[in-house]
Design a protein that fits this description.
The complex is a heterodimer. Chain A is an all-alpha fold. Helix content of chain A is about 55%, strand content about 0%. Chain B is an alpha/beta fold. In chain B, α7 (about 160-175) packs across α13 and α10 (about 265-280) packs across α11. Classes of the chains: A mainly alpha, B alpha/beta.
Chain lengths: ~80, ~400
């Protein structure tokens, strides 16, 4: 069972991309999900809303999969820099 | 009727100064107008912009007139006055066209008025809001101010707006549909709501604009206006006007691809179309004023498009992005760059790409890094590529 952050990240991506959450796995890459760069910016914006964090541009560039999004968000929530 | 079109006057207001000569002096010295944002209250992920500094509407308009005009429309009217004076014209011919480029319109007015409504619980919006925010406000103001009753309109194609506007005006003059045209663009976008929207797109640089440089981190927003006076070459010569350059060709295309992701195919087709319209081989071109936004995505794609169109000749071109100095003025960008290109032909100096630090193998062009180049060239090109995949390219020729 994926952890809470992973489930919330998947829910955000599903809502933004109009996908069924079951289509998104914790190990899915954005490329596999046909998420292009503009979709990615939308997802970052929605993740910032969901987790009440601000994802800096440099960290945002490194987020190209569900796992990278979860890791980045986890670090920001822990008070570190993503 | 020779079908040749002369540029006989230019006006510019930008981060590089409030006149055409200040604009050129900065370009010819490789001096950037990018600086810390002024007048923006809330934090942003970026802190720099290319703003017009020390602007006082009272120096240009009666208070009553200024009330009717957003900052962008004021800039447009001021640039038109400078261009018309530069052309040595006291009035404009009856058959004159005015074609402006403006993408955003009076966003400062809109933002301020909506803030009253949403944030200050003021239930009223000022009655002049609508005429101030309309994107054709500069075109309409210039028309009224100069009594121009011919074709007057605005083109809104995001970052390609003024190249589309100048190209349409050029075609009208070349075909004989009008005897003169005022063409260019204006934009004034430094309002918090609009900047926040750019922040969300994550394409604005946190430091400065370094087009074609390996460590480029994005674009820098700018504002201002550029206007040009276009006349049939023979008529300009007949009245003894000084000709600064000719516009020789215009080409446009659509990527039909993606709303923000650039593609090299569309830009290449627009460049090829502009060369065809000018009836000029690619090898004639010596300088390209690039779209060159400084985003990671644009610059390699534009480089690839230039290689497609110019082949081996791409290595002999000087290609600079003056956005490194005047910022990306969106709907006014093409107009400022048309003036930069015209003055490069007229003065024999190619403006550089400023803020350049490191060569990027994906941008393998001679980008005239940091230092202006004294070179008398005969033909030049200026590129504008817009979000939405819309491309507009102009070809210029040195005055004979």
């Amino acid at each position: 069972m994926p952890d809470d952050i992973t489930q919330r990240v998947i829910a955000v991506i599903a809502k933004t991309q109009r996908l069924d959450p079951s289509a998104i796995q914790p190990e899915s890459t954005f490329a596999e999900l046909k998420i292009d760069s503009l979709d990615g910016i939308n997802i970052l914006f929605a993740l910032e809303e969901e987790f009440k964090v601000s994802i800096p541009d440099d960290a945002a560039k490194k987020i190209t999969s569900v796992k990278e999004a979860v890791d980045g968000i986890s670090q920001l929530l822990a008070g570190g820099t993503a | 009727m020779t079908g040749r079109v002369a540029i006989t006057g230019m006006g510019a207001i930008s981060a590089l100064g409030r006149t055409r000569e200040e604009f050129w002096d900065a370009l010819a010295a490789g001096r950037s107008g990018i600086a810390k944002l002024e007048g923006i209250s809330a934090p942003l992920r970026f802190s720099n912009g290319a703003q017009v500094r020390g602007y006082d509407p009272a120096a240009h308009f009666d208070a009553k007139e200024a009330d009717l005009l957003d900052r962008f429309a004021q800039f447009g009217a001021i640039a038109a006055r400078e261009a018309i004076a530069h052309a040595g014209l006291r009035g404009l011919p009856a058959q004159t066209a005015i074609v402006t480029g403006c993408s955003v319109g009076g966003i400062g007015t809109e933002d301020g008025q909506f803030e009253e409504l949403y944030a200050r619980n003021n239930p009223r919006i000022a009655p002049m809001t609508i005429p101030r925010i309309m994107a054709n406000a500069a075109a309409s103001r210039i028309s009224t101010e100069w009594g121009v009753g011919g074709p007057v309109y605005n083109v809104s194609t995001a970052c390609a707006s003024s190249n589309h506007a100048i190209g349409q005006a050029f075609w009208m003059v070349r075909s004989g549909a009008v005897d003169c045209a005022i063409a260019g663009g204006s934009e004034a976008i430094f309002s918090l709501g609009f900047l926040k929207a750019w922040e969300a797109l994550r394409v604005v640089s946190p430091d400065t604009c370094r087009p074609f440089s390996k460590d480029r981190r994005g674009m820098i927003l700018g504002e201002g206006a550029g206007m040009l006076v276009l006349e049939p070459l023979e008529a300009a010569r007949a009245r003894g006007a000084r000709v600064y350059a000719e516009i020789a060709g215009f080409g446009m295309s659509s990527d039909a691809h993606h709303i923000t992701q650039p593609s090299s195919d569309g830009p290449a087709r627009a460049m090829t179309a502009a060369l065809g319209d000018a009836n000029t081989p690619p090898e004639a071109i010596s300088y390209i004023n690039a779209h060159g936004t400084g985003t990671p995505a644009n610059d390699p794609v534009e480089t690839a498009a230039i290689h497609t169109v110019f082949g081996a000749h791409a290595g002999r071109l000087g290609v600079s992005s003056t956005k490194s100095m005047h910022g990306h003025a969106l709907g006014a960008a093409g107009a400022l760059e048309a003036i930069a290109t015209t003055l490069a032909l007229d003065r024999g100096v190619l403006p550089p790409t400023a803020n350049f630090t490191e060569r990027d193998p994906q941008c393998d062009l001679d980008v005239i890094p940091n230092t202006p180049r004294a070179e008398q060239i005969e033909w030049a090109m200026s590129n504008s590529f817009a979000f939405g995949g819309l491309n507009a390219v102009l070809v210029f020729r040195r005055a004979a």
